[in-house]
């Protein structure tokens, strides 16, 4: 349920003790300040049986970190040079989460949400902090899973090329040149969302990652929660002579990708006797293998290969294709290792350092 | 694994090395060494052990001079003393070091009261008929990586039974304690646990090696009995073998029963496949 500014104003006007001990005595909308700028509202407030104060109010219907930061900066500008000790800048939104509350605290802005949370400081006279009440106005607009599936490719390329992209077209081309398929519309939506989350720097000529480590963490969170990953099935097969699948000395092997600890071993990060591969379609993989006289036989108990069937674009994107064994790229392997306890997280740490260090201007990760 | 136990083993290996032998280690320590490179989750489940089960193989004790050399090494060289009441097949040494001697039946050596008399009044072995193929597929393990700080451990080696032999030993040990006068639920639980860990740590190469082993000895009574134990006691997860594992509070304590049964079923399928038990055969 997304509220309008007017609905928020009405809710404040009819609060009727809802924010006790804070009382909203009156609210005047669209008030012009002395310097000519217009604020959303001025509220006359007081503490029950206590002192009163005025609040210069900025209302945000959607409290993304970016909106909150902008609102905080506006409020700071409104009250700059204001010597009135009983007047405070106050941001109001349907719900203000922890991250947003921190942004406001860092900027010295008081806040109040319609879910019943608030942090209000009036010089040294009044301090109210009430947090922990759940969001009564969850946004019902579909949440874009920007760190999963095709959408995740945008964050991945921003990590691959931390210097940034001069246009969204460049980003689309960069992704599509690396064994993936993404549209300008998807890139545009994801970039907008990343911008709102303050994860990227964006100006007219450049889109680049703001904090690579944070972005990688968000990707890992998305990977952990991915329903596609959770519903993947793995099968054990006996495969003898898988290297015969290679087409010779020049053609890259694109039938399967080494993953998990097998990929970590190929990348020199682990030692393992487990062989795990991704294929897009097991039956097609078997047919192709059998044509080359490579037998692929199901063996649940003692198979020497664990095969996972997936079309997840993140898996196949930017893979390190080789003539013999091709492997997933460092970012995909990092994500796999973060959830492969107990040994995986240690390898993930090594990969993390590598990813954050090796993203370079042409974006090709050294796998 | 307790470092003191590994040091005790290194002393044993060093002394055996002087008489041209490698000690063959069974029990929990044998499982630990056999699968020291395995990666399965069950690796963390290998039970800690406090004693060394030393199997004296037929080849090691056929020759009288070798038998005496082994006895002298254990008692005089290493200073083990016989445990009272378990004369000549269980030894101790201060502080808290234990050594149990096992032996398959060896032609020409007297067997009396479950003991193979290797050197009369000095060294016996607890008779272990199921170890009759113990020399088949022995694996050699260097102690170097277990005692990285010890210079002496560099060239020292021990031997451990193949996975099939480990399974045979554990299946018979389980059966021995699961019925009759020697019934002991606590010991059966420990043996069933070892069966679970062993079968879960095997890989395809172990399996193929095991199939060759079983084919070579397909007419053996020992293999027939082992198959019968698997059929009667490990054929479904309702059977005592797997139930004993399930009863253990340490078995995947953070998982629910459904998950635990699924894990046991995986072990069950591997075990009945290993011993070629047909579905429904009891």
If strands are numbered along the chain, what order do they take across the biggest sheet of chain A? 1-2-3-4-5-6-7
Q: What is the CA-CA span between the terminal residues of chain A?
A: 45 Å
Radius of gyration of chain A: 27 Å
And the CATH topology of the largest domain in chain B?
Beta Polymerase, domain 2
Strand content of chain A: 15-25%
Keywords:
heterodimer, A: 367 residues, alpha+beta, 7-stranded mixed β-sheet, 13 helices, elongated, disordered C terminus, B: alpha+beta, Beta Polymerase, domain 2, 2 domains, 8-stranded mixed β-sheet, two-stranded antiparallel ribbon, 10 helices, globular
List the helices and strands and how they pair.
The complex is a heterodimer of chains A (367) and B (282).
Chain A: H1 5-13, E1 22-32, E2 38-47, E3 52-59, H2 65-79, E4 87-93, H3 98-106, E5 110-113, E6 118-122, E7 126-130, H4 152-160, H5 168-176, H6 184-196, E8 200-203, E9 206-209, H7 212-225, H8 227-230, E10 234-239, E11 257-258, H9 260-266, E12 276-279, H10 282-291, E13 296-298, E14 305-309, H11 313-316, H12 330-339, H13 344-358
Parallel strand pairs in A: 3-4, 4-5, 12-14
Antiparallel strand pairs in A: 1-2, 2-3, 5-6, 6-7, 8-9, 10-13, 10-14, 11-12
Chain B: H1 3-18, E1 24-26, H2 27-34, E2 51-55, H3 58-61, H4 64-77, E3 81-82, E4 90-93, E5 97-103, E6 111-112, E7 115-119, E8 123-127, E9 139-142, E10 157-160, H5 163-178, H6 185-201, H7 204-216, H8 221-233, H9 240-247, H10 257-274
Parallel strand pairs in B: 2-5, 5-8
Antiparallel strand pairs in B: 1-2, 3-4, 4-5, 6-7, 7-8, 9-10
Helix pairs in contact in B: 2-5, 5-6, 5-8, 6-9
């Amino acid at each position: 349920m997304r509220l309008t500014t007017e609905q928020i104003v009405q809710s404040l006007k009819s609060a009727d003790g809802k924010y006790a001990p804070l009382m909203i005595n009156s609210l005047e909308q669209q008030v012009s300040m002395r310097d000519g700028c217009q604020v959303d509202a001025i509220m006359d407030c007081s503490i029950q049986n206590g002192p009163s104060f005025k609040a210069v109010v900025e209302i945000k219907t959607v409290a993304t970190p970016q909106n909150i930061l902008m609102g905080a900066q506006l409020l700071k500008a409104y009250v700059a040079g204001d010597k009135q000790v009983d007047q405070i800048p106050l941001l109001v939104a349907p719900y203000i989460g922890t991250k947003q509350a921190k942004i406001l605290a860092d900027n010295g802005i008081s806040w109040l949400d319609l879910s019943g949370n608030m942090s209000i400081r009036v010089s040294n006279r009044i301090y109210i902090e009430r947090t922990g009440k759940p969001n009564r106005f969850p946004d019902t607009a579909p949440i874009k899973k920007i760190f999963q599936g095709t959408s995740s490719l945008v964050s991945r390329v921003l990590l691959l090329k931390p210097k940034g992209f001069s246009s969204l077209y460049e980003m689309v081309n960069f992704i599509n040149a690396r064994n993936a398929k993404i549209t300008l519309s998807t890139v545009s939506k994801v970039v907008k969302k990343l911008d709102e989350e303050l994860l990227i720097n964006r100006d007219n000529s450049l889109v680049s990652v703001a904090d690579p480590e944070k972005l990688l963490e968000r990707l890992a969170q998305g990977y952990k929660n991915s329903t596609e990953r959770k519903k993947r099935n793995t099968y054990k097969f006996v495969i003898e002579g898988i290297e015969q699948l290679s087409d010779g000395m020049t053609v890259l092997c694109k039938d399967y990708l080494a993953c998990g600890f097998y990929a970590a071993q190929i990348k020199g990060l682990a030692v393992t006797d487990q062989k795990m591969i991704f294929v897009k379609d097991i039956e097609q993989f078997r047919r192709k293998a059998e044509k080359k006289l490579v037998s692929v036989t199901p063996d649940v108990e003692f198979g020497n290969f664990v095969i996972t069937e997936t079309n997840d674009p993140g898996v196949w994107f930017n893979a390190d294709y080789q003539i013999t064994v091709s492997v997933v790229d460092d970012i995909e392997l990092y994500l796999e290792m973060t959830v492969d306890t107990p040994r995986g997280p240690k390898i993930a740490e090594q990969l993390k350092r590598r990813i954050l260090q090796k993203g370079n201007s042409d974006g090709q990760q050294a796998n | 694994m307790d470092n003191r136990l590994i040091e005790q083993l290194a002393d044993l290996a060093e002394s055996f090395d002087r008489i041209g032998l490698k000690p063959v280690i069974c029990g929990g320590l044998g499982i630990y060494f056999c699968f020291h490179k395995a990666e399965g989750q069950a690796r963390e489940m290998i039970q800690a052990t406090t004693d060394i089960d030393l199997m004296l193989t037929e080849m090691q004790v056929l020759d009288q001079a070798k038998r005496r050399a082994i006895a002298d090494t254990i008692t005089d060289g290493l200073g083990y003393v016989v445990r009272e009441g378990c004369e000549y097949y269980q030894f101790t040494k201060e502080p808290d070091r234990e050594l149990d001697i096992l032996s398959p039946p060896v032609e020409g050596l007297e067997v009396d009261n479950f003991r193979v008399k290797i050197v009369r009044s000095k060294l016996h072995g607890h008779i272990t008929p199921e170890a009759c193929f113990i020399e088949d597929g022995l694996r050699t393990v260097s102690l170097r990586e277990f005692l990285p700080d010890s210079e002496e451990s560099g060239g020292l080696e021990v031997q451990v039974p193949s996975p099939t032999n480990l399974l045979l030993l554990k299946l018979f040990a389980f059966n021995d304690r699961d019925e009759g006068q020697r019934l002991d639920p606590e010991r059966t639980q420990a043996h069933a646990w070892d069966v679970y860990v062993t079968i879960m740590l095997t890989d395809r190469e172990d399996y193929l090696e095991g199939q060759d082993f079983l084919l070579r000895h397909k007419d053996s009574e020992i293999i027939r009995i082992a198959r019968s134990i698997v059929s009667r006691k490990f054929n479904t997860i309702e059977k005592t073998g797997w139930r004993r594992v399930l009863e253990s509070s340490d078995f995947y304590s953070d998982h629910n029963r459904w998950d635990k049964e699924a894990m046991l079923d995986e072990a069950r399928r591997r075990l009945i496949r290993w011993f070629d038990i047909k579905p429904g055969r009891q």
